[in-house]
UniProtKB/TrEMBL annotation:
Taxonomic source organism: Pestalotiopsis fici (strain W106-1 / CGMCC3.15140)
Annotated ranges, domain SET: 13-158
Pfam families: SET
Protein name according to UniProt: SET domain-containing protein
SMART domains, per database record: SET
Domain of life: Eukaryota
PROSITE patterns the UniProt entry points to: SET
Amino acid sequence: MSAERTTVPTGIPDTDLFTIEAIPSKGKGLVASKAIPAGTLLISEPPLFTTASLTNAETIEKDLQAIVRSLPRDGQKAFLFLHNNFPGQPNPFSNIIRSNGYPLGPNSEVGGIFPLIARMNHSCRPNAQHHWNPKLGEQTVYAVRDVAAGEELTLSYHNGGPSTERKAALKQFFGFDCACELCSQPAEKLRKSDKRLRDAARLDESIGDAKRVRLQPADALKDCKELLRIYEAEGVRDTRLPRLYYDAFQICAMHSDAARASVFAESARRVRELSEGPDSEEAATMKGLEEAPEKFENWGSTKNWLSKVSDRETKYKDIECPVSVKTTVIWEA
């Protein structure tokens, strides 16, 4: 049985950024050894193996056993020592994949096993973001907020939603009761957080209404601003944030507003670079739209907000990117 695989380090990596330590009620985890600024590359790890060759659903467990046996001894140990969220159930190799696999890209059906990244525990308000880098053939992890020395480095296994939805999904798919910083807030704070996140889901759906974006763009942009306010209140730093800036870009681009479209594209690019690195393909796409918004496929459906990129220097030159809700002028039609 052939498999795409690469031998990777299985112990503490050669880095002064973090150590692998026992975390109460979580098993092993990664802990920052010193203060780490947002945008720092924490890990860049090739897969131990991928699931590309697992094409027969009836023989997956047998095929996985063959793949693992074909690994070097340290690779076999790295896989077998990974946590199984479904102990005692049939197909233990498949369950280790279910518990620890990461897709090789947001729309990929192929997953990979990354033993070091698999050590990172979950938080609903994580301080790091993982990303598959196809140029490197590696899964990267970047800090998306400033991390204090002694703080655990965390990823999110589930994006968004109120606490009841998050906890139910995490229990079902990963077998644990989440007690992260967000989920363990006092009852009143948790209630307010849950309301904000329900509102966020409603706003996200409204922003995706193409007819409304065309006929009521000012209202759609106000929804973007309100959604950003929620994200700022909730400390959201994952892929929802650049997607929101891209939504704001699209609204402006559809109505020929090159100046504001350029600002929002820059915001999307900078957030992508922070969490995915300077060679992010999505960031490169945003860079192109930042410089030439008219290349957007739905550019100029109307001329209602007609402007040029050069107008940024007079209208929005003092706006810092990523855009904040405090920069009121950028959100006004």
